[in-house]
Specification:
Largest sheet: 2 strands, antiparallel
CATH architecture of one domain: Orthogonal Bundle
Number of helices: 3
Order of helices and strands: HHHEE
Strand order of the largest sheet: 1-2
CATH class of one domain: Mainly Alpha
Mean pLDDT: 88
């Protein structure tokens, strides 16, 4: 499919592109070639191929959400390098205004 320079200008206006006459003349054959390639892809006999979003079958890899007992506060804080008021103690990174 060959695009005319006027069609290229129209597409450029739709894309809000300001093209010079030289750019329009250079882009017309390039865009025509791209449309030709797209047309070739459309001619592929793929009636027997099922539409898919991925070439391989994917399975859900998540586990079921089940309730289980968690560690106690003492067990959690036992491995902390510093504890303050039953919480992890960390260095202050934001200065207080004051």
């Amino acid at each position: 499919m060959a695009l005319s320079e006027e069609e290229v200008r129209h597409v450029a206006r739709l894309a809000r592109l300001a093209l010079t006459d030289d750019e329009v003349a250079a882009l017309a054959p390039q865009l025509s070639a791209i449309l030709g390639y797209a047309e070739q892809v459309g001619q592929v006999a793929a009636d027997d191929v099922e539409p898919t979003t991925h070439p391989f079958a994917l399975a859900d890899v998540t586990r079921p959400d089940t309730s289980a007992p968690s560690l106690s506060r003492e067990q959690l804080l036992a491995g902390a390098p510093a504890v303050e008021q039953h919480r992890f103690a960390v260095p202050r990174i934001v200065a207080e205004e004051g």
